[in-house]
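Subgroup meeting minutes
Present: P.N., E.W., G.H.
Scribe: E.W.

1. P.N. recapped why we're keeping a running log of single-chain structure predictions: easier to compare across weeks, and new members can see raw inputs and outputs side by side.
2. G.H. added today's entry (255 aa).
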Amino acid sequence: MTDLPQTPSFSLQGKRALVTGASSGIGMACAVALAEHGAEVTLCARREDSLKALAEEMRSKGWSANVLALDVSDVEKTAQAVADHGPFDILLNSAGLARHGKAAETQLDDFDAVMNINLRGAYFLTQAVAKSLLAAGKPGSLINISSQMGHVGGLDRAVYCASKFAVEGFTKAMALEFGKAGIRVNTICPTFILTDLTRGTFEDPDKRAWILDKIKLGRPGEVEDIMGAAVYLASDASKLVTGTAMLIDGGWTAD
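Output recorded in log:
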């Protein structure tokens, strides 16, 4: 009789996960998904009160959740917090900022604000988690929430696209550097997801029509569409996946 292969485990039991941008939207959904699959999740964002309420609700489900107030744009404090509380087996970085406008009208302050979080913050957060894993001699899975706009251009999104294209670049380079240590580095690239932050975009009829025309499945994304990808990339089910982008874009980039 032939021995049948076994599906690798999606369980995250015994794993410690750091989730930034966890107070709302995609970050909150991913934190829930990781905790539901057994990870001990540390919730990070600037809004500590929101994190405490979320942690309490998660614990009521029997999941493990801790709170760590953190602003990833302060790279020194973030690195110290990771060193103090790590190592983390899983990083899910959903901290991000978008300031949209025409490229010809980009202001320095807007450019710097987006880059400080989306690129500088993401880069040094990923570095910090990787360094703590290297020091402990442990493997890990580091995931940054990027965007479909890290692969295509978008109207009024030159700065945002620049930040996400850069995230895709450092992800590949770090994957090469850390691969021998068993540390995987990947991105998740959503299309437009219905959240409080995107509500204004969807309420604009022209923008909503543009989005729904580009998404071939004919509907905007929801945070639940991202949760399975987070579990997959965090778990042993993806143990040969590194340096890549998981596009969850409803076919946007298929053109």
